[in-house]
Amino acid sequence: MKNLFIWGAALATGMIFTACESDRDDNPTISVPESFQLFTPSIANLPLDLKQSTDMITLTYEEAQFGFPCVQTYTAQLSKSEAFSEADTRTLDAFTSTVNSIELGAKEINSAINSIFAYEKDATPEEQSVYFRMMASVGTAKSFSNAIKMNFKPYFFDPSAANEVPAMWWFIGSCIGDGTWGAAQVYPLAYSADKSKLESTVYLTSAGFKMVKFPGKWDDQIGQGASFGEFAVNDGGSGNITPDADGYYVVTLDQSDGVVLSIKPYDGEPEVLDGIFISGNFNGWSDSSTPMAAVNTVEGVNNHIWFYEIPAAANTDAAGDGFNKFKINPGWKGPNDATSIYCAEGIDFEVDGDGNFAFSAEASAEPIKVYYNDIDKTYTFVR
After folding, report:
1. What is the C-alpha to C-alpha distance for residues 379 and 377, in angstroms, rounded to an integer?
2. Domains of the chain by range and CATH?
């Protein structure tokens, strides 16, 4: 990531010490300064487009003088006005420094601005002025710099959106399913354990694949850019994603700000299973009569994704309660063994007293497709 250095009119000259002096005959006394100098950056009036910027924003300032040489921790604060009232102030505590400059992320600045001004989705201003100051801390003692005004182009961000279920994306390609690129030859990217993104550990080959948002449609897709590691979103002319070597990879898709795909090698060699079974009230809880289908059947591709479509509750032998219940065999794996569970819209479940998935009567009115990743222990439920 590049650094966008925005030096002010003067450079800080104070010396930074690596530790407070402790070998004096008398203990040092902290003298909290009334203030210290934060320099106005050269881009303060641009305004800076926070959505387009991928650079770190650097502020510079003088050393705060606490009366004796010691390490100070610096943190930036952002507010509506120079008054820096508590209600209108946010501390960018994701970024700290012990020297005379600090780097701040555009995404975090935008989030703080949205939090302070409480924008509506369709009423975000073209430009927004805000004030910055630095806070210097030595233990519990704090000093604040002067305030400077900066201008930005913000974009709407709803903090609660980070807790929403991410939009589904699917693998499709020559090393996916039977390799024919058919609309049914797909499997989903799973829900991450922290519920903030989609993430799966999977086996991929140099034969190539893509990601699609809706199986059978190519309007929303992710392909490869100039080389592996560079990904193109919604570019119909993009190439297939081709890892340099066949093997296991962690695929992550972050949709908190746009669509950002990451594919990193996985450090491990998972066991390749011969098969896996599903058991529930729809098959009388037989532990070996209902195999799940191996999704990846291309020769040379290790399969770790398993699929089964649970029939609608009306077609089961459930004892009149309309619920579908199941676990995976061997091992009787259920909700308590999962690292994450993704439920598409209209599907909900409970965990019964035996640790089974128990789909409600409403959810069970239609068949439910179950995908299971035996590496991640993730479940994905879709229609």
Report:
1. 7
2. 3-157 (2.60.40.10), 162-265 (2.60.40.3620), 277-382 (2.60.40.3620)
